[in-house]
Design brief:
With 328 residues, this protein is mostly helical. Among the domains are: 155 residues, Outer membrane efflux proteins (OEP), CATH 1.20.1600; 58 residues, no CATH class. It has seven helices and four strands, in the order ααααβββαβαα. Strands 1-4 form a two-stranded antiparallel sheet. Strands 2-3 form a two-stranded antiparallel ribbon. It is elongated, with a radius of gyration of 44 Å. The C terminus is likely disordered.
Length: 328
Amino acid sequence: QKLAKENEVRVRVGQAPPLDLVQVEAEVADRREGLIRARAAAEDGEDRLRRLIMDPHDASFWQVRVDPTDEPAGRDALPDLDAIVAKAIDGRYDVARARNDVANAATSVEYFGNQKLPDVRLETSYRGSGLGGSQLLRTGVFPGVITGRADSGFGDVLGQVFGRDYPTWSFGLTVSYPLGHSYEELSAVRAGVERRQAAARVASLQLDVAAALRQAARQIRSTAEREDAARAGAALAAERSRDEQRRYEAGLSTSFLVTQAQRDLLQAQVSLLQATFDYQSSLVNFEALQLAPPLTAGESIALQGSNVVPLPTPAPRGLFRPGAGTGF
C-alpha cells in the first residue's frame, strides 16, 4: 500500500507511467486476497487448537485468543539411534503385546501336547449305609412268629453310616490313548503353527519399529537442513527487498522489481515457517514412535496440560509475524 501511494504521486507528477500504478494496485489487491485467506486459515487453526487444550464447558471458550508467546526451542543433538531403537523394541506396548501372544501360543502348544499323552485315571469310592425305622423280631421257621419289635431312630442310622457297619467299596482303573489323527494331535499342530506365526509377527514388528525410528531420525535431519536453508534464503530475500526498495527510492528500479522482491520475501518467509513447523513435527513424531505405533485411520490423540495466555484481539497486522519483516 505504501508503494501504491508512492506510485500514485509519481504518476501524478509525471515521473512514472500509469501502467506502474495499475501493476502495483493489482499486486495490492492480490495480497489483500491472500491476507483474507491467511486470516481465515489462522482462525480455523486456532479453533482446532482451542478444542485440544481448553475446556469446552468454559464460558469464555470461544472468546479467548490463542496466540503462541514463545519461539520454537533450540535444537538438541540426536541421542544414540541404536540405543533408542533397542529401548523402543523393549518398551513399546505393541511389541510387548505381541510377545504376550507368543507366550500364550507357547502355553497352548504345551497344553495340546499334553493332551496327546495317554490318559490314566484311578477311581475309588466308599459308600456307607444305615437302616432305621421299626423292625419286627420273629422266631421259628419262615415266616416265623413275631416275638417283639425293635425301633431305630435317625441317630442310630448316622451311627451305622459313620461306624462303617454296612460299607461299600469300589475301585476302577481307566487307560485311554488316542489312535490315528485325533483331535488332540490336530490341535497341537495348529497351536505350533500359531506360535510360529506369533514369533514371526514379533520379528516383523521389531523390524517395523527400527525402520520407522530410523526414518523419523532422517526426517529430523532433513527438516533441520531445510530450516537452515530456508532461514538463509529468507535473510537474503529480506536484504534483496531492502536493496530494491532503496534503488527504487533513488530512481534506479521500478515498482515491478520492488513488488517482485517483496513477493520473493513473502515466499521465503512462508517457506521458513513451513520448514520450522516440519522440524518441530518431526521431533514430536520421533518421540511418539518410541512409545507407540503410528496412528491409523480413525484414531486421534489428545493434548493436556498446556497453558493458555489470554490476549486481546489485535488489529490486522498483515501476512508477517512481528519482527519477521514488513507487510505490504
